[in-house]
Design a protein that fits this description.
Elements (H helix, E strand, L loop, with lengths): L2 H4 L4 H30 L6 H25 L6 H7 L1 H36 L4 H8 L2 H20 L5 E2 L7 E2 L2 H35 L6 H35 L3 H29 L1 H11 L6 H4 L6 H8 L1
Antiparallel strand pairs: 1-2
Helix pairs in contact: 2-3, 2-10, 2-11, 3-5, 3-7, 3-10, 4-5, 5-7, 5-8, 5-9, 8-9, 9-10, 10-11
């Protein structure tokens, strides 16, 4: 057996743990604050924040699931349980969940990017108004159903097993590895292309109308910068799957296991960059976040800067 398979590097997992210690609790506090603000203000019940809320939930669930089935799978007792009952979709879910949560996050960043483009460049178009006025449950349904349908191809695979109770590495059929890595590369590439195209078109639009930018529109742009910073993490994941797909196509089994060992870092960056983007690039939310940490009341006058109301302001400028 290849040495890379016998002894995959462990330091990426340790780096992931270091990232998780401050980031996961911070992310949970951001989610709690967002839910609290949605109770007090219509601003945080808009389509943008509904999509962002789903993205936060997907990130947190992804990290918790990854930690349980990958990060701590070597704990005594737990790995015995996993190994003994691996045929009951435990081994399969360990592998398939990576792609399932990847596609959910890809859908989220695409929805956020397209929403930013529509709200800023075409605020009173029919499509924008339909999206802005859609009930929260419809936004949530679309957010979760679309990536689930894409993931059916992956979730149906069950032919996986742990190689040994000592290493607990997943052994997957080569055709499945080739198909899944290629599919992931295509989905991530499309995600980066759609989002980059949205922001390029948005930049051209703002350049053309730079003389008529209102304060309300500036707030919308700040939210766009928040999503743009999150998009950078997807380019890291894109590079990861370029190499992973190359090694799977060339049958380099050792590098495949090495790349799989590096996955915790790229996955951690993809998930944990979002709360920092929100806090650093969304001043309204960060102020309310600090007040939440201090157990202070929400200031409605500070919170109620509605993205829906901004459309009427933009109408006078464009």
């Amino acid at each position: 057996m290849n040495k890379s398979m016998d002894n995959p590097p462990q330091w990426p997992l340790y780096v992931y743990y270091v990232m998780s210690v401050p980031s996961l609790p911070l992310y949970i506090f951001v989610l709690i604050c967002l839910l609290r603000l949605r109770y007090y203000s219509k601003t945080y019940n808009t389509t943008f924040y509904t999509i962002l809320l789903q993205h936060c939930i997907a990130d947190i669930i992804s990290m918790i699931v990854f930690t349980v089935i990958w990060g701590i799978r070597m704990l005594p007792g737990l790995k015995d349980f996993y190994f003994e009952y691996q045929k009951y979709y435990i081994a399969a879910f360990t592998y398939n969940s990576i792609y399932f949560f990847l596609y959910i996050r890809c859908a989220g960043i695409v929805f956020l990017s397209i929403h930013r483009y529509l709200v800023i460049s075409a605020p009173h178009s029919f499509l924008t108004m339909k999206i802005q006025e859609a009930p929260s449950y419809q936004i949530m349904l679309v957010y979760w159903v679309v990536p689930f349908l894409i993931s059916i191809v992956v979730l149906k695979d069950i032919d996986f097993e742990y190689d040994d109770i000592t290493t607990m590495e997943i052994v997957a059929p080569r055709p499945v590895i080739v198909r899944n890595t290629l599919m992931a590369l295509i989905v991530v590439a499309l995600t980066c292309f759609i989002c980059a195209a949205s922001y390029s078109a948005l930049w051209l639009f703002l350049k053309k109308h730079s003389s008529g930018i209102s304060k309300s529109l500036q707030r919308e742009m700040h939210l766009a910068f928040q999503v743009l910073a999150l998009l950078c993490a997807f380019f890291v994941m894109f590079a990861y799957y370029i190499f992973q797909n190359y090694f799977s196509q060339t049958r380099n089994t050792g590098p495949i296991y090495t790349m799989r060992a590096l996955y915790p870092i790229s996955n951690g960056i993809l998930s944990y960059i979002n709360p920092y983007c929100v806090l650093l690039l969304n001043r309204d939310f960060s102020k309310q976040f600090v007040r939440t940490l201090k157990c202070e009341k929400v200031r409605i006058s500070t919170v109620q800067v509605s993205t829906l109301n901004s459309q009427s302001v933009q109408r006078s400028h464009f």
